[in-house]
Design a protein that fits this description.
It is globular and about 35 Å long. The longest helix has 12 residues, at about 15-25. With about 90 residues, the protein is of the alpha+beta class. The protein has helices at about 15-25, 40-50, 70-75, 80-85; strands at about 5-10, 30-35, 60, 65. Strand 3 and strand 4 form a beta hairpin. It contains four helices and four strands; from the N terminus they run βαβαββαα.
Length: about 90
C-alpha cells in the first residue's frame, strides 16, 4: 500500500506552515507544497477543496482535509497521524 498524496497550501512568511512542514518531514513523507502568497489559481483550488478555509496552512492527506497546523499537531498528539499517513 502506498502513502496517500499529501498537499499543503502555504504562504511565504507563515510560521504555522513551517511547523506543519517540519512535522510532515519528520514523518519521512513527501508532500506537495503550493505557495499561495500571491493568490492565483492554487488559492482558488484550496478554497474549492475546503470552502471554509481562509488561512494557511491547509493540509490534505489523500481525500481527507486535515485542516491547519494545529489540527495536524493534534492528530500527532492523539497517535492518529501515522495511520492517516499510511493510508
Amino acid at each position: 500500500m502506498s502513502t496517500p498524496k499529501i498537499d499543503i497550501y502555504t504562504k511565504f512568511t507563515c510560521p504555522f506552515c513551517v511547523r506543519a512542514k517540519r512535522l510532515l518531514s519528520s514523518k519521512g513523507v513527501e508532500f506537495n507544497e503550493f505557495d499561495i502568497s500571491m493568490g492565483g489559481p492554487k488559492r482558488e483550488e484550496m478554497i474549492a477543496r475546503a470552502p471554509e478555509a481562509r488561512t494557511v496552512p491547509q493540509i490534505f492527506i489523500g481525500e481527507t482535509h486535515v485542516g491547519g497546523s494545529d489540527e495536524l499537531a493534534a492528530l500527532e498528539h492523539a497517535g492518529e497521524l501515522d495511520a492517516l499517513l499510511a493510508g
